[in-house]
Specification:
By secondary structure, the protein is an all-alpha fold. The chain has one domain (about 1-45). It has two helices and no strands. Helix 1 (about 1-20) runs antiparallel to helix 2.
């Protein structure tokens, strides 16, 4: 689930960079949160449900 969310946010972020249309810094904050969550899962060694 978390990987799907991270992929979706990354896709939206790239789309925003290409089209110069973003929701301000909101999408970047969501992307940063998703990356931090993935890194925490990798560091702790837990598998995503």
């Amino acid at each position: 689930m978390i990987y799907s969310l991270a992929f979706f946010l990354l896709l939206l972020w790239m789309l925003g960079l290409i089209t110069s249309y973003t929701l301000g810094g909101f999408i970047h904050i969501l992307l940063l949160i998703a990356i931090v969550m993935i890194l925490l899962q990798v560091v702790t060694g837990r598998r995503a449900p």
